[in-house]
Design a protein that fits this description.
Order of helices and strands of chain B: HHHHHHHHHHEEHHH
CATH topology of chain B: Ferritin
Shape of chain B: globular
Largest interface: A-B, 48 and 44 residues
Distance between the termini of chain A: 35 Å
CATH topology of chain A: Ferritin
CATH architecture of chain B: Up-down Bundle
Shape of chain A: globular
Number of domains of chain B: 1
CATH architecture of chain A: Up-down Bundle
Mean pLDDT of chain A: 97
Mean pLDDT of chain B: 95
Number of helices of chain B: 13
Order of helices and strands of chain A: HHHHHHHHHHH
CATH class of chain B: Mainly Alpha
Largest sheet of chain A: none
Strand content of chain A: under 5%
Helix content of chain A: 55-70%
Radius of gyration of chain A: 18 Å
Number of domains of chain A: 1
Low-confidence stretches of chain B: none
CATH superfamily of chain A: Ferritin, core subunit, four-helix bundle
Radius of gyration of chain B: 20 Å
Oligomer: heterodimer
Largest sheet of chain B: 2 strands, antiparallel
Number of strands of chain A: 0
Chain lengths: 252, 300
Amino acid sequence: MTQTNALYHYCLRLGDDAVVLGHRLAEMCSRAPFLEEDLALANIALDYTGRAQLYFEYAAELEGKGRTGDDLVYRRAEREFYSHLLCEQPNTDFAYVIVRQFLFSAFDRFLLDDLCAGKDARLAEIAAKTLKETRYHLAHASDWMVRLGRGTAESNARMQHALDALWPYTGELFEMDDVDLQLLEQGIAADLHTIRSLWQTEVRQTLQRANLKQPPDGYMQTGSRKGIHSEHLGHILAEMQYLVRAYPEASW
Amino acid sequence: MPTTTTDIFTEKIERDLAIEPRDPMPEEYRRHLMRQISQHAHSEVIGMQPEGNWITRAPSLRAKMILLAKIQDEGGHGLYLYSAAETLGISREEMIEQLQTGKARYSSVFNYPALTWADIGAIGWLVDGAAIVNQVMLQRTSYGPYARAMVRICKEESFHQRQGYEIMAKMAAGTPEQHEMAQDALNRWWAPALMMFGPSDAESLHSKAAFQWKIKRESNDALRQKFIDKTVQQTEVIGLKVPDPNLRFNAETGHYETSPLNWDEFHRVINGDGPCNRQRLEHHRKFHEEGRWVREACQC
């Protein structure tokens, strides 16, 4: 694999996480427990959609086949998406929304930290730009983890349930394949082994504060590095890509 | 020298001074505003639904971001307005309860469905466009907190109208299918948008007092006419047709004349039989109920 090709795939993955998680958050519009939180979630959705745009524009340039960033989002098939399985998990209830966000933002925060210092200037620039938002996302989600974990018996039970259900999707966040290893060697990609231990500490501390039990690391779901997803992704894409697919000649 | 509380209030109104929360005010004035501001807040919040219906299907990342930002603004407007209404002595919980039990209304235009992407254009252009005309007037309304909320809201609404118009213009100039979608959306949203100003003031229950108290400063018909004159020209610029066979420009008055509106439909929809009334309230109740455990946990 050439370096450009590896970097193209790396950007696609980052973009896919952002666009899919942003989509799930956008689904929450007019569905939050109160208005202020509705706005907060829309704001996070907006941040993710914005960074998706930056990653895909870069990916499209690296690919050099004349496709646009939007082409990569709206005209790619299910098996060509590389977002982590965690990102596509549905908004089962507010606890799922928060736990998913917490687990992902805790990862994202250290990932971006690393990428900021990376040798690819463009990627470092995007990371620097988005790290600030991510710190806020993590603070917001951590706050909710603690508040709901320590809230009522019901809120604690719901949070624990969501945590147990989403935990098996966290192992995948730290998988590294040839793309990662090649770019890591060149000082571009993040070292997910290091990030894993930082993430574990962050998560453990917050779960303790939140009075939630860390689930045991049993079997971890996997597949997204190869474009194999849960059934949810196909539905997300069917909805997201509908107009562009139905009217392929149109521009919007 | 005014002596009674009524005199103080009347003098402030006559001198065009803002009435503030701690000022004396007649009970009817307070009730009128409470009703109007909460209805306005509910409209912003319920209005998030028809547009939210298209966020997940927005056809580009840019379109998705603009729509998300717009809906977020609407929610923010709802917040300012709930706060403005709270200064009159009603809590947000009470207002939400009134909404959910049908005691409080919201703008009837949101009882129409957003069927295609062009509807997102039409809502921004026409519905927000009509709202701006009304809200520009309300920047000078006599109740201070309401007037100040309107100043902030008007700034954002003009961005909303531009985003809607941009969608319509793009689609009107796009493929024949897109053009047709744009025209169809205009056909369906035109009359509901004109009805947003309400019936003629002669028929309006609340108008007379609202004028006296300077809550309202221009008549429904005058505001509607302003909107028509502005919008007809915008329609022509992008190559769409106003869906009214009787539309004509009266050179003497300098205004466009239009067909009478179907007020029976307006009353039918406002009274619960629009295409989406039940859906909108059901949605609000469902997610409010689903969020109950979160709100309870916040009280701990």
